What we know:
111 residues; mainly alpha; 95% helix; rod-shaped
Amino acid sequence: xxxxxxxxxxxxxxxxxxxxxxxxxxxxxxxxxxxxxxxxxxxxxxxxxxxxxxxxxxxxxxxxxxxxxxxxxxxxxxxxxxxxxxxxxxxxxxxxxxxxxxxxxxxxxxx
Length: 111
């Protein structure tokens, strides 16, 4: 079955249309890839920024916790000093008792 000139022209036209459509699809895919890459980069930057903010907040909370702990230890130290000054004999007896208990425990472990 031989093809006529008109059929060959129609076939060429269809083939060109298919090629044009394929190029359009290829261009659309490139554009889509570029858009997806940009979106991924933006999302990464956003997440990176959020992570940095969380890190800063965590560091600030740690500083506050440390400052609070130092303040409590300082308050406890002052309270202890005041009680020792108010009742020195009682403080010495408590210290001696604690020393005796620690010595007894250490002596038992060494045997």
